Amino acid sequence: MNILLWILQWLLAVHTAVGAVWKFTNSEQAVPSLAAIPHSVWVALIAFEFLCALGLVLPAFNKRFARGVVLAAAGIAAEMLLFCAIHIYSGDPNQGPLVYWLVVAVIAAFVAYGRKALQPLR
């Protein structure tokens, strides 16, 4: 289980860092259903995602940061669910992004649960 959680943590960290870079190079207008997000919040999400990506991988280098994994993964799951809610509220008929965000939210929630209850880092 520990190996699976580490693999998921690294994949989630890479995914989140790439998402932050994408947000940096694109505006919130790039995804029509997310156009309701104010630009300042969009920019704050970039920093939030980089911090979450770091929180997922830092324990590999220093166990002192182990608690950050649960917080980072839970934060990513919450962000993805927020995107889902905004997408549903926008009325956009395209369900592709919704499914994508839900899958990422489930993976992030599994990592958070796994590191909290199944295989905590010590």
Mean of the pLDDT scores? 91
Unreliable parts: none
Structural class: mainly alpha
Largest β sheet strand count, sense and barrel closure: none
Q: How many strands? A: 0
Count of separate structural domains: 1
C-alpha end-to-end distance: 15 Å
Order of helices and strands: HHHH
**How many H/I helical runs?**
4
Shape: globular
Kindly provide the radius of gyration, computed on alpha-carbon positions and rounded to a whole number of angstroms: 15 Å
Write up this protein.
It is globular and about 45 Å long. Helix 2 runs antiparallel to helix 3 and helix 3 (67-90) runs antiparallel to helix 4 (96-118). The longest helix is centred in the N-terminal third of the chain and has 24 residues, at 2-25. It has one domain. The protein starts with a helix and ends with a helix. With 122 residues, it is mostly helical. The protein is built from 4 helices and no strands. The protein has helices spanning 2-25, 39-57, 67-90, 96-118. It is 74% helix and 0% strand. The mean pLDDT is 91.
